[in-house]
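Below: protein 1.
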Amino acid sequence: MALLFAVHLLHVESVAWISERKDVLRTFFGLSAIIFYCQYAKRSSIKYYLLAVFFFLFSLLSKQMLVTLPILLLLVDFWLLVDFWPLQRVPLLPDFAKLKKNRFLILEKIPFFILSIIFSIITIFSQKTGKTTMVSLTDIPFLTRVGNALVSYATYLYKTVWPFELAIIYPYQHIELLSVIISVLLLLAISVFVIILNKKHPYLIYGVSTSLP
């Protein structure tokens, strides 16, 4: 991971700043949790399940960014991805049996969701102590935030290919409607592209879906 960030400048602060070591630790523990969860799904071993929960906890203790991991795990094996890569844990069963199976897939994520909720609450309360850390909906409306998120997705993709005009901090700026429309069209084009290639390259649609949380 250090080599990746050393070569690509987009997220170099993770290895350039000692204070951002939490980013590397969070990613390491998060990926480890996913690996152990996949082992649990394949072998039905409680040992791997507990390791996945513990590594998820370590990831949250490093940095709370990975609170969306339970959603990612659902995307790995939930019925929406029954025909997709990678685990395909839900077989083609009758409706009642499939519903029962899906219920178990949700129940086994409860410890992950509990940890995510706890750390989300802690983060929100801690961030509120700073005057400029969290901005109210009055100052920046919800739709503006959605537009900013869409433009940020497109900008991040652009800077991944062309990592220039980078900055330590990217302050909030007013976003033009045209930028939002272009970003939406770009994300839709990527989504359609990976759906078309799903049969030959099913991992693409999984990668796109897991990038959204």
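Below: protein 2.
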Amino acid sequence: MKRLRAVIVKEFAHILRDPASLSIIFLMPLLMMFVFGYSINYDLNSIETGLIDYDGGEAAGELGRSFANNHYFKVRNLRKEFPNESAPEVGERLLKQGALKMVIIIPRDFSKNLKLGRKSDVGIIIDGSDSNVANLVHQYNEMVIFNFVTELKGIDELIKIKTKIYFNPEVKSAFFFIPGLVAILLVMISAILTSLSVSREKESGSIDLIFISPLKSSEIIIGKTIPYVFVAFAVGAMTLLFARFWFGVPIRGNLFALLVLSLIYMVAGLAMGILISTVAPSQQAAMFMALLSTMLPSIMLSGFIFPIDAMPKPLQVISHIVPARYYLKIIRGMAVKGAGLEHFIKEAGALVIFAAVLMTAATIKFSRNRKRAK
């Protein structure tokens, strides 16, 4: 018992000497409960909806208000908002950008036909790139239309809803999940690649030789990053091709533009990894930090599985510092929807800023470590 007690006391001493690991052990369950508890929400609110009303009559107005006067939809009147442009072209452009999830088209003479007892069509176009959201939007549509025809008795057989699913007519889940997996894998692999670079030097002891070299800290960081850019580009191209030819995910947009934006995204991941490597004391710690800082936020806060619009406001704000949020919008828009580069200038700019800020932070941290060593 004395020998056993000695081992137990020694292990407790090791645990108490490592407060950082102990904090992670206790804080990680709380953090995951917080993130999962608030982000796992399949209900949608304020679905961005475009309304094209060619009729302008009383019944058409009532139908538009039926969608607008509930928390499920946020309706934008495209004819009023863009008076000098073709409303269908605007609707298609906004669907490709991801600014709209649905477009409602009310034809001319809609109100007149219903008043005279004649049948009239209502067109609804749903963005099918996110199969889960598309199914939910379709269900909400049926509920709103049912309430509308119930309030205006006698017209339930006069309205015919024609629904079209854009970009993914068969609502295949692969078109939704595979681009998301590509986004997660690219940032995770990129961060792991460079997270081991400086920490490897620390463990081998060769970091001292780098510290006393005549090279500037920025030159060292950039020099360590550039070789991995080529590796990351090859991994990105391979992943996209695998998604295309194995899972059948279409690449309808410009492949070269998608590869360029993918490279910018991976450079941001590489910069994150190099920053981690300047902080982590060992390769094992660096890999753990890289996985934790890329995988969990990219899965939970990027819109990969759970719509960002359905999250609480604080998590929506936090999601703006997750690079995968921007790349996911790019890859789904360019690959599945066939949108052009001009639709994602803001997202591309955000990724460039991420890469620049993270690379600068890594250089500053490495420079400070270098001064301490001297």
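The chain has a mean pLDDT of 81.
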